[in-house]
Specification:
The complex is a heterodimer of chains A (about 250) and B (about 300). With about 250 residues, chain A is an alpha/beta fold. Chain A folds into 2 domains: about 90 residues, Beta Barrel (Elongation Factor Tu (Ef-tu), domain 3); about 140 residues, Rossmann fold, CATH 3.40.50. Chain A contains 5 helices and 15 strands. In chain A, strand 13 and strand 14 form a beta hairpin. With about 300 residues, chain B is of the alpha/beta class. Chain B is about 30% helix and about 15% strand. A 7-stranded parallel sheet of chain B has the order 3-13-12-9-8-7-6, with helices on one face. Chain B has a 4-stranded antiparallel sheet with strand order 4-5-11-10, with no helix packed on it. Chain B has a two-stranded antiparallel ribbon with strand order 1-2. Classes of the chains: A alpha/beta (about 250), B alpha/beta (about 300). The interface between A and B is medium-sized, with 30 and 37 residues.
Chain lengths: ~250, ~300
């Protein structure tokens, strides 16, 4: 597995939703991303504060650019949001296993900030001629983003917890209400959502997990989780994508 | 070119830089970033007799210039480390490594040491009597001088290789601990392990780390480590490997001035996977600026004051 550490230049910052930002990075490192669902680990600045890197999911990439989406939740993301166009970021690139594109009808299921990594995956599935349906869940109207982007691939259903847009409830409520079918589902979102999906749909799913990480490249064991197939997997190396068949619900 | 070679019991090192246990896995993870043969030695991930999954998540939190961790000695057990992990490392690293040993009872340490000290790649053992993140054993041995001496003596009796003891800073008098393990036959001391700390969620008051407490490391603890290495290295005659917050070549020099015969680099490896490589590359230049021809000449330079 090739990893890359290097500087990436910020070329674009867009405010997508409440506290949610899309940032486009340009540089040689972009070509080290080989699969949708991989992530990058960013040193927010070159001082000792914040000390650890911040893992970020990638919504889209090509040979020269990487697009990340993040929500401002603390000190690191607050600093990141306020960076200027032209600033350089020290990035570790090409981390994690990524989604495996499979034949057969695809259901993309995104929960909040778990939505972005499904976008480039959708592009690859579309290139393969796969039939795609998308379900996106958000807390409320002010949190919604990327719905139009996913409409490029096919039908998009939205759920909000407060019912302000689409179905009131969770992504699973939408799947049941609309009786959505799939050969494979691909998902990323908060852990309770992923656990509920693995419980309700234990087969043919690829689930992308999130964890607090020390390093992001397998050294610290900070993000290990129990799975059915091995004593444990590291979310940062053998993940972030786990197969539904190996996920231990609430594990 | 200054001389960087250092010699310690069981280890002939081309330079004094060693990645610290728990921040470098079993070494091979870093071979995709650089040629790890440049390292003086490698302190392996803490190894126990039986496999351990470790603590629930979250295991990591952050603080000013440092991080809090409570991994809980996750490892595949001594047999898998000897037969699988070290075999993965073998083609990538030629020099001797330091096996870090953890346990819950004296017998665990003894049996693990007896087995892993026979491995041809292992040059020395590091006895972890100071892990703050496991619920039995570990730090209890590291905070009581009699228990520390007992486990040291029993491991020494079975080990085929020199034994270093890793000391905890979470004690009233670290010099007393160092003297106790020296008397019990330790060949060296490695120090310091992490400082016990906590962080809390502002809304709920719940600890961020699932284990409640974690071990704090990073540049924030560097001055504490320097002070303790200074005190201990003055009081014992066995060598000290100094660690705790080292992040650059200048820190290495300062730690050796404090009294360390070699150094370990900890969580800087996690922030920058190239940290050890950069430190080794910079060391010669930094020594040259100070007019030092042999790195061994600065060990304990501070003791004259």
């Amino acid at each position: 597995m090739a990893n890359y550490q290097g500087m990436m230049e910020i070329v674009k910052i867009i405010n997508l939703a409440d506290d949610v930002y899309e940032m486009t990075l340009k540089g040689e490192g972009a070509k080290y991303i080989t699969q949708p669902g991989q992530f990058i680990n960013i040193k927010i600045n070159d001082s000792l504060q914040p000390y650890l890197r911040r893992p970020m999911s990638i919504s889209d990439y090509d040979e020269n650019t990487i697009v990340i989406v993040f929500k401002v939740v603390g000190e690191g993301t607050e600093i990141l949001k306020n960076k200027a166009i032209g600033d350089q970021l020290d990035c570790l690139i090409g981390l994690g296993n990524g989604f495996t594109v499979q034949d057969g009808k695809a259901l993309l299921i995104g929960g909040g900030l778990g939505t972005p990594p499904l976008y480039h995956l959708g592009k690859m599935l579309r290139e393969k001629g796969v039939d795609i349906t998308t379900v996106l869940g958000f807390a409320s109207q002010k949190d919604i983003f990327y719905v139009d982007k996913f409409k490029e691939f096919g039908d998009v259903y939205v759920a909000t917890m407060d019912g302000s847009v689409g179905t009131k409830g969770t992504v699973i409520d939408v799947m049941k209400e609309k009786q959505l079918t799939f050969d494979h589902y691909y998902t990323c979102g908060p852990e309770p959502m992923l656990d509920a999906l693995a419980l309700n749909y234990p087969e043919n799913g690829q689930l992308s997990f999130e964890a607090r990480m020390g390093c992001g490249f397998g050294a610290c064991m900070g993000c290990s989780c129990k799975v059915k197939t091995k004593p444990y997997k590291r979310i940062c190396v053998e993940g972030p994508i786990l197969m539904s068949e190996e996920v231990i619900v609430n594990g | 070119m200054a001389n960087l070679k250092v010699k310690l019991p069981g280890l002939e090192m081309k330079n004094p830089v060693i990645p610290a246990s728990g921040t470098f896995g079993f070494g091979y993870e870093f071979a995709r970033f650089y040629d790890i043969n440049i390292l003086g030695s490698i302190m392996l991930k803490g190894t126990t007799l039986e496999p351990r999954y470790g603590n629930p998540l979250p295991r990591i939190a952050e603080g000013p210039s440092g991080m809090l961790n409570a991994i809980g000695l996750q490892n595949p057990g001594v047999d898998a480390v000897m037969n699988e992990e070290l075999e993965k490392l073998r083609p990538l690293y030629q020099d001797k490594v330091i096996a870090n040993i953890g346990g819950s009872a004296v017998e665990d340490y003894v049996e693990t040491a007896a087995r892993i000290s026979t491995h041809d790649m292992v040059g020395a053992l590091e006895l972890n009597i100071s892990c703050p993140n496991v619920h039995s054993g570990g730090i209890q041995f590291g905070t009581n001088p009699q228990m520390a001496a007992e486990v040291t003596r029993k491991v020494k009796a079975v080990s085929k290789k020199p034994v270093y003891v890793k000391l905890s800073p979470n004690v009233t008098d670290i010099v007393e601990m160092a003297k106790a393990v020296e008397e019990a036959g330790a060949d060296g001391i490695t120090m310091i392990n992490t400082l016990v700390g906590m962080r809390f969620h502002l809304k709920t008051g719940k600890p961020i780390i699932a284990n409640g407490t974690g071990g704090y490391s990073g540049p924030a603890i560097f001055p504490v480590a320097l002070r303790m290495v200074h005190q201990v290295s003055r009081a014992v005659s066995i060598p000290v490997i100094g660690m705790g917050g080292i992040s650059c070549a200048k820190d290495v020099i300062e730690m050796m001035i404090a009294g360390a015969s070699a150094v370990a680099i900890g969580c800087q490896n996690l922030v920058d996977p190239y940290a050890c490589q950069k430190i080794i590359e910079d060391l010669d230049c930094e020594l040259e600026k100070l007019g030092i021809d042999d790195i061994n000449d600065i060990v304990g330079l501070s003791h004259r004051y």
